[in-house]
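User: Some background: our group keeps a shared notebook of sequences we're curious about, and every so often someone picks one and asks for a predicted structure to add to the entry. Today it's my turn. The entry only has the sequence so far, pasted here. Could you supply the structure so I can complete it?
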Amino acid sequence: MALNIKKLLISQPKPTSEKSPYFDIAEKYGVEINFRPFIKVEPLSSKEFRQQRISILDYTAVIFTARTAIDHFFHLCEELRVNIPETMKYFCMTESIAVYLQKYIIYRKRKIFYGQNGKIDDLVAVIAKHPKEKYLAPVSDVHKDDLFVMLDAKKISYQKAIMYRTVSNDFKPGENFDYDMLVFFSPSGISSLMKNFPNFEQKNIRIGCFGSATANAVKDAGLRLDVQAPTPEAPSMTAALDMYLKKEMANKKK
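Assistant: Of course. Here's the predicted structure to add to the notebook entry:
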């Protein structure tokens, strides 16, 4: 029996692996899933970065909370012709982010540290063991301050450095927007939706989101939130979608 939800838009890049749970969901429920980010990341030019009056070599350690930050940090260093010394220390949110450093440095020859559980307080605990370092934290123009509030509490010396910006990934005129469900992963995605479609009317379109900040952005925009993750029952967005579609299918059969 066909669902009312036939076409979903996931506001993220298409998964590179064919084993993505999204593809399983599409097959299981006979729905079409399209992937299209509502936001994209752009680098700051070296000229824009210089306006912050930050000298990268004044710092002894760099904090990375995402792979995107690593890419933009090293690309900007290259553009500025800054040679990072081998003595530079790197503090990463997770091991997978730390391993990504291999793209730019000889991993085994550097001092690299990372949190064990992927949570901010764990990373701060690792940083606090090295209180004498001067930390540089590459961030987007749109970022959360949770990490920096905790570093302030520990009296850690750091400098935020905006190295990239988050912008709306605009829809082209005439681009189809005939979805039964939209799924968002950041408040910026909601802002982009409202920018691209200022007269957007939700009506029967379902909206799903990941994270409490995104959920608040949905409600602040005056929209109805239908699916949310993470929850104890659905720790991932795909788990939440699976539960929602399963319930929809059960209701359809009644």
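Suggested note for the entry: The longest helix spans residues 237-253. Residues 7-38+171-253 form a domain with the Rossmann fold fold (CATH 3.40.50.10090).
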